[in-house]
Amino acid sequence: MDLKGICVLSVILIVALSTLTEGKTPPTRCQCKQLPRERRNCGYPGISAVECRKVGCCFNASVPGVPWCFAPKVKKVRKVCPNDPYGRINCGFPGIKAKECERKGCCFRAHPSGVPWCFYKRVVEEAC
Questions:
Q1: Which residues contact 116 (CB under 8 A, 6 or more apart)?
Q2: Assuming Cys at both sites, which of 40, 59, 64, 76 could form a disulfide with 52, CB separation 3.0 to 4.6 Å?
Q3: Is the pLDDT of residue 13 over 90?
Q4: Three state DSSP letters for the chain
Q5: pLDDT tens digits, 68-115
């Protein structure tokens, strides 16, 4: 491989790695709501709030003697049947029975017409 090819591959690698590190979504307030004794360290001594959040962690420097940059709690989610009939995503086929639909782990509502009656559940985040 020539020098030009190596340079191109290097640039692609650098761009790909930078998007991976910047791609972390910041934790929600709910995930960061923890007792100080529950905190698990997520940074290094002297890490700034910006750097801490950039790696997807929580930051709170109000309590001395415990980690200020700490791992967020796992999001609590649950599956629910959506209320909006026009937001349904089909999970069955025309004529599917309620029992068969529910065996597939889906929701069944035989109304209104013109929308799927057997449809997938939605994942929603629970409140703290």
A1: 88, 89, 90, 91, 92
A2: 59
A3: no
A4: CCHHHHHHHHHHHHHHHHHHHHCCCCCCHHHHCCCHHHCCECCCCCCCHHHHHHCCCEECCCCCCCCCEECCCCCCEEEECCCCHHHCCECCCCCCCHHHHHHCCCEECCCCCCCCCEECCEEEECCC
A5: 999 999 988 899 999 999 999 999 999 999 999 999 999 999 999 999
